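Structure ticket #2291
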Amino acid sequence: TVFGVVKEGNTVNGVIALADSGYHVYPCTVAIDATGDADLAAASGAAFALGREGDGFPQPYSYTPTVVRDGVLWSRNFDAGWVDPTDTLDFSRAHFEGRRRLWEEGPFTEEMHHCCLASIIGLRESRFIKGDVRLTFSDFLEGARYPDTVCESTAHYDNHAIDYAEESDWAYRHVVLFGLWRQMATGELPYRCLYPAGVDGVLVGCRAISIDHDLHQLVRMQRDLQKIGEICGVAAAKAARDGVPPAGVDVAELCEELTERGVVPPPAAEPAMAVEIDALLDALGTERNGLAMWRLSQRAAAVDWDAFFTSEVVRDRAFAGAVAAAAGGISSESVRSVLSNAFRERIAEPALGIKSPPPYVVAALALAEIRAPEALPALCELLQAPDLQAAVAVLVLKAIGRLGDKAGVVALKAFLVDGLDGASTVSLWGVKEFRLTSFRFAVELRAVRSLLELGCADEVPRLEAYVDDGHLLIRRYARRLVAMAQ
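Resolution: structure written out below.
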């Protein structure tokens, strides 16, 4: 456990940690932060980020006890809620919350019972340092290359979030509009993302490297952290041996040493789906549908959409094209017509991808992207649905707020009166479907925020129920909204 550091100027030359005899100062030439939460880097004064753009929440944490089922011992993993892992009180609360969820699953029997509580909780995300270069998911998809690449990372966008309304605009489009949650991506990790900017003597050998919240969902897997840890160990030894700070290490020589150890620099990264427009249009409706939509949204102005919709007879391909066009800012009558028809006909399948809502919901959200006249009536209609799910509710509530049309105020206030109770629970990953988690806080806070964005402060008193909530992340977000209203 790191309690602090000793610095000379901007250089860390000692770490204060716990020893058998109490607190102890461990002198060092280079300190490797393997805490997972960037505790050492933060103590050294490094700048860092925590949580996502919308509400400051990291993605959910999991609880992992052991369970006996019919005489067999299993390790069970399920999402239990949200926590700020850098706060000791909130961290303790998260432990109790995980244990409470286990208790609710009783009664237990000899054939099925938990025999060990989780000694630690499964934290997927904490601080991210800010280094000389900060990587994003777009860097991976665009095949960004670096002169100091030391390894690569490959995975999909493994984000356990429920409400993509509060994720970044990139994540919202990537998952909701393009259905790319399962899309694999590979990218280069440069040496410069392994140490904080403005602080010497520290390397980060854990998930807290200089990446953003979106890319972290990919670069957090065990195989990546094993490589990163080894790279930091070799780099620290080399820095000490050569008498230079970590930032001064000769990366070419470092890569030679790493290669001898089996950490081979990857081949140069390549951009994903970098093909001509005709090939992108041909890929709609195929296994590369989402990537094609993403690329077409970037090049939407260069596509003859009227010609495409006139000649396209496959409904799903036309719909995917219309969503891509809207995401790219194309608001032509043909685009609006395809989206409006999908909404009117309540096309519910196939979904564009995992965690993407039914196509008719995507259609309404895409209409909102281009501020089409049809958008607000469609979104308001969704809010009135008796089977509205919480994850969809927050998407719709945010879209209404971003439209900027004050006519949406009436629908938002009506939802808070008549629709909030019906869209207030979610099923977290790994939890039995009938054991729902309250999500009322997220839906209600988003509704109030959208009203504030439309210039209406009538519902601000609802924030009072959350400003002293027992969950740090909830009360922090509520207080932010109170400040926004002032």
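Closing remark: The CA atoms of residues 79 and 428 lie 6 Å apart.
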